[in-house]
Every structure is written in C-alpha cells, then in structure tokens.
C-alpha cells in the first residue's frame, strides 16, 4: 500500500463560531445574577477577609520578632504546635534543624551588635529548641 497524498480523502474542518457568542451570553447572564445577589454596599466575603488581614497591626521589625518567627516554624516542624484541623502534626526533623541552625547563624553573625536582652533571648531560645529537637528525635527512635 502506498501513502501518497492523492490516495487520502480530503479532510474538511468545520468550525462552529456560534459557540463563542453563546458562551459569552452565558457568562454575562451569570455575572448579572451574581451582581443581583450581592448587595452593592456590602463587600464580598473574600474582600472582607483581605481587609481584616490588612488591618492587623504588625510588630516592629526586630531581632526578637525574627528569631521568634523562626522558632515558631521550628516548633511546627518538630510537631510541637497542634494542627488546627485536629490531626496529629507531622514531624519534619530536617526542617526543624534548618530553622534552629538559622537562628544559630543569626546569633553568630550579630555577635557584638546585640543588647544583653537580645543575647539572653537568643541563648535561651536556642537551648530550648535544641532540647526539644533531641527529645523528638529520641521519641522517634524509640517508636521506630
């Protein structure tokens, strides 16, 4: 059997362009229905959530806030912060180690530029996180 262009029947492409106008009309009808259901003076729920988040006062940038944020992430990775959904939080030792190491790097890089309070806070935070890391690591070894 030979495959020559003359042996195949000519293919016809049929394009239905009317579907575009039907889809556009459906979109417009849905938008009108949505506009009628949502009163103009009340923002949509998603907008209310965005506005509420924007209004939350943030603490001033500081070494304490940064170290505390990293410590919280380490505690989450260690499974020490309960899951809002009610499940058992997963333990991710490699992530916890990364956050603890990051705080230790901050302590090292800011040496000589910290207040005594900041130094004490970092020292205490690192001690507590390292002890928690070892405890979780031992618990996993005993369970495994």
Describe the model.
This protein is an all-alpha fold and 144 residues long. The chain has a domain at 63-143. Helix content is 63%, strand content 0%. It has helices spanning 18-37, 45-55, 63-77, 93-109, 116-143. The protein starts with 17 loop residues before the first helix and ends with a helix.
Characteristics:
144 residues; 5 helices; elongated
* Cα end-to-end separation: 66 Å
Number of helices: 5
Rg of Cα set: 30 Å
Specify the overall morphology: elongated
Largest beta-sheet characterization: none
Number of strands: 0
Q: What pattern of helices and strands is seen along the backbone?
A: HHHHH
How much of the polypeptide forms β-strand, as a percent range? Answer: under 5%
What structural category characterises the helix and strand content?
Answer: mainly alpha
The proportion of residues forming helix, as a percent range, comes to: 55-70%
The residue ranges in which pLDDT falls below 50 over 5 or more consecutive positions are none
Mean pLDDT: 82
